[in-house]
Amino acid sequence: MDTVSMAAQKSQMRAVGAHDMSIGARIRTLREQKGFSQGDIERLTGLLRCYTSRVENGHTIPSLETLERFAAALDVPLYRLFYVGEDPPPTSRISARKTLEELAQSEGKEAEEARFLLKLKTLLDQVTESDRQVVLALAKKLASR
What we know:
The protein is mainly α. It contains eight helices and no strands. The termini are far apart.
């Protein structure tokens, strides 16, 4: 890389600022804030320490599944790997969703499904934890067919 392009790249990096850091740098920052070593991340995620180093240094780009593993290990919501601010990012373009109760009051298939889910929720609230585990295991078996 010639001197002119290196100077331009350094200038661009200074202009970008902290809010635009790479995912790898963001993971490193969050890891260090938690006081975790790369070995701690290896134990929590099952990802090799050398892989974490490659991610943090920008030599590899992790998949979404891997990013979810990093977020879980760091005990942060996934968006924190992409966003530097303390508060959740603004979501002005996302429209408000109707609650299940609001959906149940309307007409049509969605309303019918909402009413079913509300009944199911009411019944599950009355079930003991051990019975809830049995129901969950049965549902998983049925879903895998």
